[in-house]
Amino acid sequence: MNGHTAGGRTLVISPNWIGDAVMAQPLLALLKAAHPERAIDVLAPPSVAPVWRQMAEVAEVLETPFRHGPLQLRERWRYARRLARRGYADAYVLPNTLKYALIPWLAGIPRRVGYKGESRYGLINVMHRDDAPPRPMVPFYAALALAPVAPLPAAQRDAVPRPRLAASPEQIAAACARANLDLARPLVAFAPGAEFGTAKRWPPAHFAGLARAIVAAHPDVQIALLGSPKDREACETVIQAAGGLPALRNLAGATSLAEAVALIARAGAVVSNDSGLLHIASALNRPVIAIYGPTDPGHAPPFSDLAASISLRLECSPCRQRECPLGHQDCMQKIAPEQVWRTLQPMLVPRA
User: Fold this and answer.
1) So what's the pLDDT on residue 3?
2) How far is Cα 83 from Cα 9, in angstroms, rounded to an integer?
3) Which top EC class is given (predicted)?
4) Taking a C-beta distance cutoff of 8 angstroms, is the pair 118, 138 a contact?
């Protein structure tokens, strides 16, 4: 491990995306293993904060008061003064932007770790540089716990722990009660949305076809459609395409993120686009099917004991575009519901 300033607390500044926050958890595990006596606080946007609260290594989650976009230098200086009183020995700045690197520098935190990013010399004083091509996200963040070396040695890369989240039985029971889901019946979770753009979304009609296959094989199943308020319309389209199956429940926007975590923890299997909910399911070690089109399944794969990544690996993918530049979205359209059902079916067999 890289040397640390003695004493004090550690501050981790969160990425802005749920999936990235989940994939940064192994960094915290490595930091805690190196210094078990040191409390780790996380500074996170309110939209991402609930994920960090499900991590055993986190002592306290501080929610950022800043608006998206503007530099807000005066507000950052005031907030940094508050952080200075908490006695941080080091800070890990996970976003690559200048404005997040300003905070620990203004707070006078002596050791400030991060990637090169945008014009951050001096603000970051333990500077890492990414490999070319970029490494997968989990080892990308985990490398910050080590001395800056490029590329990351294979032995260290292979030793990175898997992302881990946990939800208590009480949290699961409360979330199921609020969503009116029966704890005695099997539960499958769908995540039909994707914050990045429509290109990452498996068609609603395909989710509907999969739902019909699941219900035909398991008549007592409940299928929860999860997501943010932005995903509610897409989830409703799934239900309509499935002919209004009673087993389907549109919970997009009707649960908090913490409740969605608890429902995923209860699920017997999760089928998801490449999204934050996919990485939550993976970190909860649920059986997962991840559907990839315009993104690379090797860059941010699921890590569950029972997981499958489905990608057609067409010549035009991964294009990493928000909308299909060719207008056909074949990378997702041509993944048939039957193909996903063949992969999902053995996951739904009760295991001892």
Assistant:
1) 42
2) 11
3) transferase
4) no
Cβ within 8 Å of residue 264, ≥6 positions away: 189, 226, 270, 277, 280, 281, 284, 286
> What structural domains does the chain harbor?
9-158 (3.40.50.2000), 169-348 (3.40.50.2000)
In whole angstroms, how far apart are CA 335 and each of 195, 238, 283, 348?
A: 20, 16, 25, 20
The residue ranges of the chain whose pLDDT is under 50 are 1-6, 352
Instruction: State the CB neighbour count (10 A cutoff) for residue 71.
Output: 12
Report the greatest alpha carbon distance in the chain. Answer: 62
pLDDT confidence of residue 5: 45
Determine the Cα angle at 38 with ends 259 and 11, to 5°: 60
Q: What is the 8-class DSSP label of residue 214?
A: H
Q: Which residues contact 53 (CB under 8 A, 6 or more apart)?
A: 61, 258
Could you tell me the strand order of the sheet in which 187-191 lies? 248-250, 222-225, 187-191, 269-273, 288-291, 307-310
CB 276 within 8 A of CB 265: no
Retrieve residue 9's tokens: 């607390």
**Which residue has 């905070």 as its token pair?**
103
The per-residue pLDDT for range 92-133, each reduced to its tens digit, is 999 998 889 999 999 999 999 999 887 788 999 999 988 666
Distant-in-sequence, close-in-space partners of 174: CB < 8 Å, separation ≥ 6: 259, 262
Q: Position of tokens 């399944």?
A: 297
290 contacts 200 by C-beta, under 8 angstroms: no
Over the stretch 226-241, which tens digit does the pLDDT of each residue have?
A: 999 999 999 999 999 9
DSSP string, 87-114: -EEEEEE-S-SHHHHHHHHHTT-SEEEE
The confidence score (pLDDT) of residue 4 equals 43
Question: In terms of Cα–Cα distance, which of 165, 153, 230, 219 is closest to 192?
Answer: 230
